[in-house]
């Protein structure tokens, strides 16, 4: 019998028979590990425990519930159990597909006669718990296309027959069974249902089959699962906190923006929201001189020719707005990205190496034709502005430019109180990319080396880059532990060549420049969605729409409060004066609800002594000693100028 060699994380190797499964290897290591095993990991990819190993493996990791990926396997398995529960309670239901990403939840779509009610969800969840207690083992089975078609035809699963056609010819077709339930799936899954632990169904919603509005509406059930009840409870508490922080709730409460069905995907920014919006834009623009950027503005409308040159017409056409121009045959596109316009700006004159790096930045409006069903508050919109720049440089300047990008990113994120950014390299997608694979590989290596030389660890997200070049993604975890990509930097593998961009080099010859796409915040709208939820609306003093609330105790203190307001406004401090005939406690609660960083109570003592008694939201004691108006104003102005994240006691 032939054997294969399997490398282990601790450096040891095992000799096992060819065809041994991942679970067999776990048993060789130890019975305790085998009982706890949920999946394996080979070359960073999760594999099922029942998958046979047909050749040597340099490194095999056994995934348990202690591994972050273990929770994904548990949720994927709970997904199948939930579908099983639906079929037991609603035998006529047809099962469509589950979810690709199980990092937080699972889902399945069903074709049923009536939408699921809250009572139905309770029954389904109870059935899920019953199935978990049955401890049915999951079994992996590789079958022919003909056998799979016969099986699902016999089961009356028409949607599955359609999904079967999506599997490329020659690709393996695998089924997973537990109890009486069977589905098309690549896995991985737990050993048996008992390993699922704790399950909670979250909601049911309508979803068009295959995401197409012209197709029938299916019913989607969302749920989540963890190894233990405690982990589930902690997760549900985070969900509740996320609901409280939802920017679609907090934004209107703080009078920042309004979402209107008359303009889907195009938010109305209200006065306070514009202070916040412009504060971010002005902050980034203020850094342009320091980091060597030139602000430009390209047109909003272009003939389609420019997008055919850039490659967006071929690769991004359905995501843009197009219409016929006045001239016969003229097709115009509304600007959905800044890079083609910046390439035209580069080409308007003959360039020299002495001008490089040339850094062009723009904040103008962009529009993309997102489907209405995908629009989500500020997080996914049709109209937005991007913290966008393009850097044209010599190829040996790329690493220096990446370091400069990290310096700017750090300065911006520090002022906003964002910490713990992780850097990941996104590599060439399998299909739909432009440029040569060999050039992509060079660019990917160049980016990874620059990230490491800048002192960052560099993770890898295979196949996640945009179609025109590899990307550095700066991923930030918010206060709820959710990961968001904010800043990005990409090497463009194709556009300089497609636009014929050239500069005269030190040798007097023409050369093609390197081109970097750079964003520190990304889309301002999306950044605000993330930032509002991260802060809960408690913005840094320098960015807060209203920085100080003046609260006179009675009407006789209103005149003095007006003088304090005038002094603050003269120093550029954004201030509100609540001179309503209300009790002080009511005014304080109102200011608290509006998340105003500093409140100043003004009564007899303050009026007589010409002082202010501040209350700082971030200070749990909330107390404060009286200070002179001049000191109060100058200290606040200094904190704002320094972009201090947390206001000190003025």
Structural notes for this entry:
By secondary structure, this protein is α+β, with helices and mostly antiparallel strands. Strand 24, helix 15 (437-453) and strand 25 form a beta-alpha-beta unit. The strands form 10 sheets. The protein has an 8-stranded mixed sheet, sandwiched between helices. It has a 5-stranded mixed sheet with strand order 32-31-33-34-35, with helices on both faces. A 4-stranded antiparallel sheet has the order 6-7-12-11, with helices on both faces. Helix content is 35%, strand content 24%. The chain has 4 domains: 3-64, Roll (Ubiquitin-like (UB roll)); 69-244, Threonyl-tRNA Synthetase, Chain A, domain 2; 292-535, BirA Bifunctional Protein, domain 2, CATH 3.30.930; 548-641, 3-Layer(aba) Sandwich (Rossmann fold). The radius of gyration is 29 Å and the shape is globular.
Task: Give a topology summary.
Elements: E1 3-7, E2 13-17, H1 22-29, H2 31-36, E3 39-42, E4 45-47, E5 60-63, H3 68-89, E6 94-95, E7 106-111, H4 118-134, E8 139-143, H5 145-155, H6 158-164, E9 173-178, E10 181-184, E11 198-208, E12 217-226, H7 229-245, H8 247-253, E13 257-258, E14 268-269, H9 271-286, H10 288-291, E15 293-295, E16 301-303, H11 304-310, H12 312-315, E17 322-324, E18 331-334, H13 339-346, E19 351-352, E20 358-362, E21 365-367, E22 383-385, E23 388-393, H14 398-416, E24 422-426, H15 437-453, E25 459-461, E26 471-477, E27 483-491, H16 495-498, E28 503-504, E29 510-511, E30 514-519, H17 524-535, E31 548-552, H18 558-570, E32 575-577, H19 584-593, E33 598-602, H20 604-609, E34 611-616, E35 627-628, H21 629-641
Parallel strand pairs: 15-20, 19-28, 24-25, 31-32, 31-33
Antiparallel strand pairs: 1-2, 3-4, 3-5, 6-7, 7-12, 8-9, 9-10, 11-12, 13-14, 16-18, 17-18, 20-23, 21-22, 23-30, 24-26, 26-27, 27-30, 28-29, 33-34, 34-35
Helix pairs in contact: 3-4, 5-6, 8-17, 14-15
